[in-house]
Amino acid sequence: xxxxxxxxxxxxALLDATFEAVSRxxxxxxxxxxxxxxxxTTGAVYSLFGSKGGLLTAMVTERLKPHYEEIAxxxxxxxxxxxxxxxxxxxxxxxxxxxxxxxxxxxxxxxxDMAVHDPELGARFAETIRRHESRLVAVFTGRPHGGGxxxxxxxxxxxxxxxxxxxxxxxxxxxxxxxxxxxxxxxxAARALASAATLVEDTAESEDTAASxxxxxxxxxxxxxxxxxxxxxxxxxx
Length: 238
Known about the structure:
This protein is mostly helical and 238 residues long. It is 72% helix and 2% strand. The chain has a two-stranded antiparallel ribbon with strand order 1-2. A hairpin with a 2-residue loop joins strand 1 (144-145) and strand 2.
């Protein structure tokens, strides 16, 4: 076995051991026990991943990557935004019926618990998730909607909203709290989010800014020593 092959074998063993340990012990998972389960030493962890946080983040990446690759394949290239959101919603709902759905949800809750106990690790998890969600943002960006095309900023806002929607709904399905939430339900809820002006349109925001600027100009002093100082500066748009 070559050095590169040995390195990859050790990396794989540590990732598998981490998944098992985290699934069982959550934030109490110990690095020495993970290394022992993998048949290695903690030195191998630091050599391959830099730290326990690096190992845990790599494990999360390992679990997320196939998920977002499948999403990209599930959404038709030529679809408009609502059709793309519909396809994504139905894909997500089908995952609730997968044999490992409960195990996946348990891991999701465990990782959330770990993030709560360790804010630094939580920040690393969030960065990893956002990086992978960029693939979904790219899937939505440029799609026709409402007479225009979706911008990257609009796609990012929509992706964030859909994450919140689907995580909550999928937990409800798996736990039996949303027995009527079938594919059509997921798709309808997702389409409603995608149709909301606050998610996919910047028009209202631009109009509010323009109105604020116009009001400021009309109220501003016309000049001279009695003007009372500088004119107020309008607040920046969020």
